[in-house]
Amino acid sequence: MVDVCYENWETVIGLEIHVQLNTKTKMFGPEAYHFGSEPNTDIGVISTGQPGTLPTVNKEAVRKAVQFGCAVHANVSLVSRFDRKSYFYPDNPKNYQITQFDLPIVLGGSVTAEVDTET
Question: Which DSSP string corresponds to the chain?
């Protein structure tokens, strides 16, 4: 049995938060999106990753992300980058997810909440 001393450790908890912005089209393609649609109905050649297609960023979504970053007093980057993470999901035929790993649009920020009269 190993005796481990934890008294010099600091607990750090990170959160990765996903949001769905109310834009007319998807983040990386021209396909419309409607909350509550039947599965596999709001799709097209971009969202299914067809050969020869390239995703393009939704400018309205970026604008809303910047607005959100300002609202929560976050760091809003002047330079951002999207990366591909390869995954195999049975419901994701393109086998990758687009993410912002190194250079996200918004980083940090805070939201103050009151719970049982405590801030």
Answer: ------TT---------------SB-SSSS-B--TTPPTTSS--TTTTT-TT------HHHHHHHHHHHHHTT-EEPSS---EEEE--BTTBTT-EEEE-SSS-SEE-------BTTB-
* CA dist list (Å): 66 to 36, 78, 83, 112: 26, 10, 19, 19
Chain segment 72-92, per-residue pLDDT in tens: 999 999 999 988 888 777 777
Return the sign of the alpha-carbon dihedral for residues 40, 35, 19, 54: positive
The angle formed by the CA atoms of residues 14, 17 and 21, to the nearest 5 degrees, is 165
User: What is the pTM for the complete model shown?
Assistant: 0.73
Calpha distance 66→90 (Å, rounded) = 33
